[in-house]
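Morning, I've got a small favour to ask if you have a moment. I'm working through a protein record and want to make sense of it properly. The fold is given in discrete form, as structure tokens running alongside the sequence. Can you walk me through what the tokens say about the fold? Thanks so much in advance, here it is:
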Amino acid sequence: MRASRCRHSTQAGVVTARARFAVIIPAFDEVENMPALFAALRDTFDKHALDGDIVLVDDGSSDGTYAAAAQEAGRLGSHARVARHRRNLGKTEAILTGARATDADILIVFDADLQHSTEEIPRFLTKMDEGWDIVTGRKVGKYEKKAVSSVYNRISRLLFDVPVRDLNSMKAFRREVLDDVALRHDWHRFFVVIAYARGFSVTEIDIELRPRVAGRSKYTGTGRVASSVADLLVVWLYLKFTRKPMQLFGGMGAISAGIGLIVGIIAVALRAMNILPPPIGYRPLLGLVVLLILVGITLFGFGFTAEMIATLRSELEEMRRHDHRRG
């Protein structure tokens, strides 16, 4: 790989240095793909005179992936390194580990299975040069899980109104985006929608998904689909109500208490007009009234407490941004 810094033109006649970038590669039981992966990376970096880091994160593999990756990385010099999880933590944690292993300003997430071409890397960098915060890849062509993926992405667009059509593919983004977005386990799939909700710009390019040459897919099964849909709803609630939790808890509390008051008024009116009680009698209605009102008050209390937590969180985030700007 060449050691010279790549340069690009942002305006006619103006040449500026491209921000440093790193390719982060989560890998789990991909020993068979290591030689071809590093060979393809070396060819692409040399062909396009790219100067960036390669960080492969072995996410607790048990098939010798770490040893194979370390051997291949050693042939590429100091630009390539391998990090390791002692047990399988998940792709989100692997991405975060890779980001901590480099100080590059632009991070590109690339899968170790070589279902994307390494020639996509310079295309992502060129698109990032236009000033976008995040560039995602939209898979085109025929691939095994296209139907499931299209349903998942369609639901995501309906819930989040994000201006890209594929949320879980190869992507490039600026480090400041990752610094501002807190990711929980398995939330790499929602990285784009959370970042977009925070005001970062997002665009996409078409990329080809190629057949897997070796190894097997780690992300199959109906259980994972159900889990993904459940996570979608959690993230939707998180984004919609994290800043104003009183809208959720207070609204539900008001509805509960309102229904309780209505039931109570109806019960009192029936009693006052000497109308025969319903088959269950008036006492269960009184218990229902008390329950609904207590639930409403409790939910309202949850909402108030959550509002205080949200306020503290906003203050902490502002302090963190202030410290980051000073640093």
